[in-house]
Design a protein that fits this description.
DNA polymerase, domain 1; 3 domains; 4-stranded antiparallel sheet; 12 strands; about 20% strand; DNA damage; mutator protein; DNA replication; metal-binding
Length: about 350
Protein backbone atom coordinates (compact mmCIF):
# COMPACT_ATOMS: atom_id res chain seq x y z
CA UNK A 1 0.00 0.00 0.00
CA UNK A 2 1.02 3.62 -0.50
CA UNK A 3 0.75 5.97 2.44
CA UNK A 4 1.40 9.58 3.22
CA UNK A 5 3.99 10.51 5.81
CA UNK A 6 2.52 12.93 8.32
CA UNK A 7 4.32 14.48 11.30
CA UNK A 8 2.53 16.29 14.11
CA UNK A 9 4.80 18.57 16.14
CA UNK A 10 3.55 19.74 19.53
CA UNK A 11 5.65 21.99 21.72
CA UNK A 12 5.81 20.81 25.32
CA UNK A 13 4.07 23.21 27.76
CA UNK A 14 4.91 25.96 25.30
CA UNK A 15 3.96 29.19 27.11
CA UNK A 16 5.26 27.96 30.46
CA UNK A 17 8.44 26.60 28.87
CA UNK A 18 9.11 29.99 27.24
CA UNK A 19 8.78 31.69 30.62
CA UNK A 20 11.18 29.21 32.20
CA UNK A 21 13.56 29.66 29.26
CA UNK A 22 13.65 33.42 29.61
CA UNK A 23 13.72 33.46 33.42
CA UNK A 24 16.17 30.90 34.87
CA UNK A 25 14.70 31.43 38.35
CA UNK A 26 11.51 29.71 37.19
CA UNK A 27 13.22 26.56 35.96
CA UNK A 28 12.31 23.42 37.87
CA UNK A 29 9.44 25.20 39.60
CA UNK A 30 5.66 24.93 39.15
CA UNK A 31 4.65 27.74 36.80
CA UNK A 32 1.24 28.79 35.49
CA UNK A 33 0.82 31.31 32.72
CA UNK A 34 -2.29 33.40 33.38
CA UNK A 35 -3.88 35.74 35.88
CA UNK A 36 -3.97 34.82 39.56
CA UNK A 37 -7.17 36.71 40.34
CA UNK A 38 -10.37 35.01 41.46
CA UNK A 39 -11.63 35.09 37.89
CA UNK A 40 -8.30 34.25 36.28
CA UNK A 41 -7.73 31.15 34.17
CA UNK A 42 -4.59 29.12 33.60
CA UNK A 43 -3.45 29.44 29.97
CA UNK A 44 -0.61 26.93 30.35
CA UNK A 45 1.13 25.00 33.10
CA UNK A 46 4.69 23.71 33.41
CA UNK A 47 5.22 20.00 33.91
CA UNK A 48 6.20 20.69 37.51
CA UNK A 49 2.75 22.24 38.03
CA UNK A 50 0.98 19.45 36.15
CA UNK A 51 2.17 16.98 38.78
CA UNK A 52 -0.26 18.73 41.13
CA UNK A 53 -3.13 18.48 38.65
CA UNK A 54 -2.79 22.04 37.34
CA UNK A 55 -3.76 22.27 33.68
CA UNK A 56 -4.84 24.77 31.05
CA UNK A 57 -8.36 26.23 31.28
CA UNK A 58 -8.42 25.57 35.03
CA UNK A 59 -9.58 28.48 37.23
CA UNK A 60 -6.54 30.13 38.79
CA UNK A 61 -8.06 29.97 42.26
CA UNK A 62 -8.44 26.18 42.00
CA UNK A 63 -4.92 25.83 40.61
CA UNK A 64 -3.48 27.78 43.54
CA UNK A 65 -5.27 25.49 46.02
CA UNK A 66 -3.98 22.35 44.31
CA UNK A 67 -0.43 23.69 44.16
CA UNK A 68 0.30 26.15 47.01
CA UNK A 69 3.78 26.98 45.60
CA UNK A 70 2.43 27.73 42.13
CA UNK A 71 4.06 30.74 40.47
CA UNK A 72 1.78 32.80 38.22
CA UNK A 73 3.26 34.80 35.35
CA UNK A 74 1.46 37.06 32.91
CA UNK A 75 1.37 35.84 29.29
CA UNK A 76 3.65 37.54 26.75
CA UNK A 77 2.10 36.73 23.39
CA UNK A 78 4.52 38.77 21.26
CA UNK A 79 7.34 36.63 22.63
CA UNK A 80 5.40 33.42 22.01
CA UNK A 81 4.71 34.49 18.44
CA UNK A 82 8.37 35.34 17.88
CA UNK A 83 9.47 31.86 18.91
CA UNK A 84 6.58 30.25 17.02
CA UNK A 85 7.82 31.88 13.81
CA UNK A 86 11.32 30.53 14.45
CA UNK A 87 9.88 27.05 14.93
CA UNK A 88 7.83 27.26 11.73
CA UNK A 89 10.92 28.33 9.83
CA UNK A 90 12.39 24.96 10.78
CA UNK A 91 9.32 23.20 9.38
CA UNK A 92 9.61 25.01 6.05
CA UNK A 93 13.17 23.75 5.64
CA UNK A 94 11.62 20.32 5.08
CA UNK A 95 8.26 20.95 3.39
CA UNK A 96 5.88 23.68 2.32
CA UNK A 97 2.96 21.46 3.35
CA UNK A 98 2.68 22.86 6.87
CA UNK A 99 -0.67 23.30 8.59
CA UNK A 100 -0.30 25.34 11.81
CA UNK A 101 -3.02 24.60 14.37
CA UNK A 102 -1.85 27.18 16.91
CA UNK A 103 1.36 28.87 17.98
CA UNK A 104 2.68 25.63 19.40
CA UNK A 105 1.60 22.82 17.07
CA UNK A 106 1.38 21.94 13.41
CA UNK A 107 0.97 19.13 10.92
CA UNK A 108 3.63 18.51 8.27
CA UNK A 109 3.27 16.33 5.18
CA UNK A 110 6.77 15.04 4.37
CA UNK A 111 5.75 12.39 1.85
CA UNK A 112 7.90 14.41 -0.53
CA UNK A 113 10.31 16.73 1.21
CA UNK A 114 12.99 19.26 0.40
CA UNK A 115 15.92 17.16 1.59
CA UNK A 116 14.94 13.96 -0.20
CA UNK A 117 14.89 11.88 2.98
CA UNK A 118 12.61 8.84 2.87
CA UNK A 119 12.27 8.42 6.64
CA UNK A 120 9.65 10.62 8.30
CA UNK A 121 11.01 9.48 11.66
CA UNK A 122 14.49 10.80 10.87
CA UNK A 123 12.98 14.08 9.68
CA UNK A 124 11.03 14.40 12.93
CA UNK A 125 14.22 13.79 14.92
CA UNK A 126 16.05 16.46 12.92
CA UNK A 127 13.21 18.94 13.47
CA UNK A 128 13.19 18.31 17.23
CA UNK A 129 16.96 18.79 17.36
CA UNK A 130 16.89 22.02 15.35
CA UNK A 131 14.08 23.47 17.48
CA UNK A 132 16.11 22.73 20.63
CA UNK A 133 19.30 24.20 19.17
CA UNK A 134 17.66 27.38 17.84
CA UNK A 135 15.13 28.16 20.56
CA UNK A 136 16.08 26.12 23.62
CA UNK A 137 12.60 24.59 23.66
CA UNK A 138 11.49 20.96 23.64
CA UNK A 139 9.01 19.49 21.15
CA UNK A 140 7.22 16.17 20.93
CA UNK A 141 6.56 14.52 17.59
CA UNK A 142 4.05 11.98 16.34
CA UNK A 143 4.58 10.22 13.02
CA UNK A 144 2.08 8.19 11.03
CA UNK A 145 0.22 8.01 7.74
CA UNK A 146 -2.73 10.25 8.65
CA UNK A 147 -3.45 13.30 10.77
CA UNK A 148 -5.47 11.53 13.46
CA UNK A 149 -2.76 8.98 14.18
CA UNK A 150 0.07 11.53 14.04
CA UNK A 151 -1.76 13.81 16.46
CA UNK A 152 -2.46 10.90 18.80
CA UNK A 153 1.15 9.71 18.62
CA UNK A 154 2.60 13.11 19.55
CA UNK A 155 0.79 12.95 22.88
CA UNK A 156 1.92 9.44 23.82
CA UNK A 157 5.39 10.04 25.29
CA UNK A 158 5.42 13.66 26.42
CA UNK A 159 7.56 15.53 27.19
CA UNK A 160 10.27 15.25 24.54
CA UNK A 161 8.37 12.40 22.92
CA UNK A 162 8.86 10.67 19.60
CA UNK A 163 6.20 8.11 18.73
CA UNK A 164 5.69 6.32 15.41
CA UNK A 165 2.52 4.44 14.46
CA UNK A 166 3.26 2.29 11.42
CA UNK A 167 0.49 1.30 9.00
CA UNK A 168 0.62 -2.34 10.04
CA UNK A 169 0.31 -1.36 13.71
CA UNK A 170 -2.49 1.17 13.40
CA UNK A 171 -5.63 -0.93 13.82
CA UNK A 172 -4.26 -2.79 16.85
CA UNK A 173 -3.08 0.49 18.38
CA UNK A 174 -6.46 2.16 17.97
CA UNK A 175 -8.30 -0.91 19.25
CA UNK A 176 -6.55 -0.58 22.63
CA UNK A 177 -6.78 3.20 22.83
CA UNK A 178 -9.19 4.54 25.50
CA UNK A 179 -11.87 6.75 23.97
CA UNK A 180 -10.72 9.58 26.27
CA UNK A 181 -7.47 9.70 24.27
CA UNK A 182 -9.08 9.91 20.85
CA UNK A 183 -8.34 13.28 19.26
CA UNK A 184 -11.70 14.75 18.30
CA UNK A 185 -13.68 13.08 21.08
CA UNK A 186 -14.29 15.65 23.78
CA UNK A 187 -14.57 15.03 27.51
CA UNK A 188 -18.38 15.09 27.61
CA UNK A 189 -18.72 12.77 24.60
CA UNK A 190 -16.11 10.39 26.03
CA UNK A 191 -18.05 10.20 29.29
CA UNK A 192 -21.23 9.36 27.38
CA UNK A 193 -19.40 6.67 25.44
CA UNK A 194 -18.08 5.08 28.63
CA UNK A 195 -21.55 5.07 30.17
CA UNK A 196 -22.77 3.34 27.00
CA UNK A 197 -20.10 0.64 27.36
CA UNK A 198 -17.65 2.01 24.78
CA UNK A 199 -14.33 2.14 26.61
CA UNK A 200 -11.83 1.66 23.78
CA UNK A 201 -11.50 1.81 20.03
CA UNK A 202 -12.35 -1.88 19.91
CA UNK A 203 -15.68 -1.20 21.61
CA UNK A 204 -16.37 1.76 19.35
CA UNK A 205 -15.68 -0.33 16.28
CA UNK A 206 -18.51 -2.69 17.19
CA UNK A 207 -21.00 0.09 16.51
CA UNK A 208 -22.43 0.55 13.05
CA UNK A 209 -22.20 3.79 11.13
CA UNK A 210 -25.97 4.21 11.49
CA UNK A 211 -25.75 3.77 15.26
CA UNK A 212 -22.92 6.27 15.68
CA UNK A 213 -24.62 8.81 13.40
CA UNK A 214 -27.85 8.45 15.34
CA UNK A 215 -26.02 8.96 18.63
CA UNK A 216 -23.58 11.71 17.65
CA UNK A 217 -24.91 13.30 14.47
CA UNK A 218 -22.37 14.35 11.83
CA UNK A 219 -19.49 13.42 14.14
CA UNK A 220 -20.61 9.80 13.95
CA UNK A 221 -18.92 9.38 10.55
CA UNK A 222 -15.65 10.69 11.97
CA UNK A 223 -15.82 8.35 14.98
CA UNK A 224 -16.64 5.42 12.69
CA UNK A 225 -13.51 6.13 10.65
CA UNK A 226 -10.98 6.90 13.36
CA UNK A 227 -11.71 3.74 15.35
CA UNK A 228 -10.64 1.97 12.17
CA UNK A 229 -7.52 4.20 11.87
CA UNK A 230 -9.02 5.93 8.82
CA UNK A 231 -8.56 9.67 8.28
CA UNK A 232 -8.59 11.10 4.75
CA UNK A 233 -7.97 14.74 5.72
CA UNK A 234 -4.98 16.26 3.98
CA UNK A 235 -2.49 18.71 5.41
CA UNK A 236 -3.72 22.15 4.36
CA UNK A 237 -0.88 24.67 4.12
CA UNK A 238 -1.69 28.27 4.99
CA UNK A 239 1.53 29.87 3.78
CA UNK A 240 1.98 31.31 0.30
CA UNK A 241 4.32 29.29 -1.85
CA UNK A 242 7.69 31.05 -2.01
CA UNK A 243 9.48 28.53 -4.18
CA UNK A 244 8.96 25.18 -5.89
CA UNK A 245 11.87 22.81 -6.34
CA UNK A 246 13.13 19.27 -6.74
CA UNK A 247 16.48 17.79 -5.85
CA UNK A 248 18.32 14.49 -5.86
CA UNK A 249 21.14 13.09 -3.75
CA UNK A 250 23.23 10.59 -5.70
CA UNK A 251 24.44 7.25 -4.36
CA UNK A 252 27.79 7.92 -6.07
CA UNK A 253 29.22 11.36 -6.70
CA UNK A 254 29.20 12.51 -10.33
CA UNK A 255 32.20 14.16 -11.97
CA UNK A 256 31.57 14.61 -15.70
CA UNK A 257 29.95 17.68 -17.26
CA UNK A 258 27.67 15.65 -19.53
CA UNK A 259 26.42 13.62 -16.55
CA UNK A 260 25.70 16.79 -14.57
CA UNK A 261 23.78 18.41 -17.44
CA UNK A 262 21.77 15.22 -17.94
CA UNK A 263 20.79 15.18 -14.26
CA UNK A 264 19.90 18.88 -14.28
CA UNK A 265 17.66 18.24 -17.29
CA UNK A 266 15.87 15.41 -15.49
CA UNK A 267 15.51 17.22 -12.15
CA UNK A 268 14.39 20.45 -13.85
CA UNK A 269 11.54 18.60 -15.57
CA UNK A 270 10.38 17.18 -12.24
CA UNK A 271 10.62 20.64 -10.69
CA UNK A 272 8.66 22.18 -13.57
CA UNK A 273 5.89 19.60 -13.15
CA UNK A 274 5.59 20.52 -9.47
CA UNK A 275 5.63 24.20 -10.40
CA UNK A 276 2.65 23.76 -12.72
CA UNK A 277 0.77 21.66 -10.17
CA UNK A 278 1.33 24.30 -7.49
CA UNK A 279 -0.54 26.98 -9.50
CA UNK A 280 2.19 29.38 -8.36
CA UNK A 281 2.37 31.00 -11.78
CA UNK A 282 4.56 33.81 -13.04
CA UNK A 283 7.86 32.68 -11.52
CA UNK A 284 10.82 34.73 -12.67
CA UNK A 285 13.92 33.24 -11.00
CA UNK A 286 15.45 29.82 -11.71
CA UNK A 287 18.00 28.53 -9.20
CA UNK A 288 20.22 25.48 -9.24
CA UNK A 289 21.79 24.14 -6.05
CA UNK A 290 24.99 22.10 -6.14
CA UNK A 291 26.37 20.23 -3.15
CA UNK A 292 29.85 18.79 -3.58
CA UNK A 293 31.34 15.63 -2.15
CA UNK A 294 32.89 17.59 0.74
CA UNK A 295 29.38 19.05 1.51
CA UNK A 296 30.26 22.54 0.35
CA UNK A 297 27.27 24.06 -1.39
CA UNK A 298 26.78 26.72 -4.05
CA UNK A 299 23.77 28.16 -5.87
CA UNK A 300 23.43 29.88 -9.21
CA UNK A 301 20.35 31.85 -10.26
CA UNK A 302 18.95 33.70 -13.24
CA UNK A 303 15.97 36.04 -13.27
CA UNK A 304 14.05 36.33 -16.53
CA UNK A 305 11.39 38.74 -17.66
CA UNK A 306 8.74 37.88 -18.80
CA UNK A 307 7.82 35.07 -16.42
CA UNK A 308 8.88 31.48 -17.07
CA UNK A 309 5.86 29.33 -17.83
CA UNK A 310 6.98 26.76 -20.41
CA UNK A 311 9.02 23.65 -19.76
CA UNK A 312 11.53 24.18 -22.55
CA UNK A 313 12.59 27.61 -21.28
CA UNK A 314 12.63 26.38 -17.69
CA UNK A 315 14.92 23.44 -18.46
CA UNK A 316 17.20 25.41 -20.76
CA UNK A 317 17.80 28.15 -18.19
CA UNK A 318 18.51 25.57 -15.49
CA UNK A 319 21.09 23.80 -17.67
CA UNK A 320 22.73 27.08 -18.71
CA UNK A 321 23.45 27.90 -15.06
CA UNK A 322 25.98 25.09 -14.76
CA UNK A 323 29.32 25.48 -16.51
CA UNK A 324 32.44 23.34 -16.63
CA UNK A 325 34.13 25.75 -14.21
CA UNK A 326 31.75 24.56 -11.50
CA UNK A 327 33.04 20.98 -11.63
CA UNK A 328 34.98 19.94 -8.55
CA UNK A 329 37.49 17.17 -7.88
CA UNK A 330 35.34 16.10 -4.93
CA UNK A 331 32.48 15.36 -7.28
CA UNK A 332 28.84 16.37 -6.90
CA UNK A 333 26.58 14.55 -4.44
CA UNK A 334 23.37 16.62 -4.81
CA UNK A 335 21.67 18.74 -7.45
CA UNK A 336 18.56 20.83 -6.95
CA UNK A 337 16.53 22.97 -9.36
CA UNK A 338 13.82 25.42 -8.32
CA UNK A 339 11.81 28.47 -9.29
CA UNK A 340 10.87 31.46 -7.15
CA UNK A 341 10.12 35.17 -7.33
CA UNK A 342 6.40 34.74 -8.00
CA UNK A 343 4.94 38.13 -8.82
CA UNK A 344 1.30 37.16 -8.89
CA UNK A 345 -0.84 38.31 -6.00
CA UNK A 346 -3.26 35.38 -6.16
CA UNK A 347 -2.86 32.78 -3.43
CA UNK A 348 -1.61 29.48 -4.93
CA UNK A 349 -3.36 26.24 -4.25
CA UNK A 350 -1.56 23.57 -2.18
CA UNK A 351 0.87 21.34 -4.07
CA UNK A 352 -0.55 17.88 -4.67
CA UNK A 353 1.89 15.38 -3.20
CA UNK A 354 2.73 11.97 -4.61
CA UNK A 355 2.29 9.01 -2.30
CA UNK A 356 5.33 6.93 -1.50
CA UNK A 357 5.88 3.71 0.36
CA UNK A 358 5.83 4.53 4.07
Amino acid sequence: MNHRKIIHIDMDAFYASVEQLDNPELRGKPVAVGGNSQRGVVAAASYEARKFGVKSAMPSAKAAKQCPNLIFVQPRFPRYKELSHQIRDVFYEYTDLVEPLSLDEAYLDVTENKIGLNSATLIAKEIKTKIKERTGLIASAGISYNKFLAKTASDMDKPDGLCVILPEEAEAFVAKLPVQRFHGIGKVTAEKMVKAGMFTGKDLRKKSLEDLTLRYGKSGQYYYNICRAIDHRVVQPTRDTKSVSAERTFEDNIYELDDVIEEIDRIARISFERYKRSKAEDGHTITIKIKYGDFQQITRSKTDDPSINDEGTYVQIAKSLFTEQLLNEKGIRLIGVGISNFRKDEEPEPVTQLTLEF
